[in-house]
Amino acid sequence: MTPCPTDTSTTTQFTTKSNVSTENEREREEATTSTEKQRVCPECGGSLTHDTAHGETVCGECGLVVDEAEIDHGPDWRAFNSEERDQKARVGAPTTKLMHDKGLSTKIGWQNRDTHGKSLSSRQRQKMQRLRTWDERFRTRNSKERNLKQALGEIERMGSALGVPKTTRETASVIYRRALKEDLLPGRSIEGVATAAIYAAVRQAALPRSIDEVATVSRVDKMEFKRAYRYLGQQLGLEIQPPDPEDYIAKYASTLDVSDELEARAHELLQTAKSANVHSGKSPIGLAGAALYAAGVLTNEKMTQSEISEVTDVSEVTIRNRYQELLETADQKSKGVTPN
Fold this sequence. Notes:
The chain is mainly α. Among the domains are: 143-236, Orthogonal Bundle (Cyclin A, domain 1), CATH 1.10.472.10; 245-334, Cyclin A, domain 1, CATH 1.10.472.10. It contains 13 helices and 3 strands, in the order αβββαααααααααααα. Strands 1-2-3 form a 3-stranded antiparallel beta sheet, with no helix packed on it. A hairpin with a 5-residue loop joins strand 2 (56-59) and strand 3. Helix 11 (284-298) crosses helix 13 (316-334).
């Protein structure tokens, strides 16, 4: 019988793979051994300590200097308090979504002075002005960047006028960036979508800001930004809960300067109304104003409906109707009757 011939190429491949794996294992063992040697003293086997002041690695038992002239990765300056640390630090500002380039680019300052603080000549000032113009052009190279820069400026302006925190403005800028990336802006104004983004961020953060307040600081009509807000919510799938009337209590109670007892009673009335589902389909601002008036009636604090109407920008008729519903719901609950 003729013996079966062996496949020499397959045997060579298996031999090569086994040799490579053996070499890799040997390298890992050597690396592990060298790491263990670095952790212990090569003379006495004691533990090693790092002397950062002198840049040395020293054995804590026999005093042997294992390594010296180590690289110090810390700053080259000393600071004794947070103010000195901030003044001496040479790093840039943190990145932010409120700038179209996230704050990574540089900008030529507006001061017409040199490094010594001396004023520039008229020729040098003209030169610096041309450089600033070109620097601004290079920072916004295309239409999308110019669009984003204008929109983020509007978000910053409206957020500052509404008194919302920086985190909410950051959220609004992220929403606008998503709308720009998904090409949802054609047919809509930049100001309208920016207003819709800031209102969506306010709603997500559960801040007590009404549509009328946002429309007051906006440069577009209220209906335009409401349409843009509904469109962004549908296309981007924004998870926004319905406004809670309790979120407005603290704001209006502070403006009216009422007592803590009245404010707590207003919260109780609204909680009772929500448990009975009386608040469904009603304006949260009207319910908040009615709760404050009803709480004033229960706590014997004098407060007229016209005062609340002026603060909440809700008609007196709405406050009168809603406060009666709140009192009826609270009375039915106290009697153990389930509201209709």
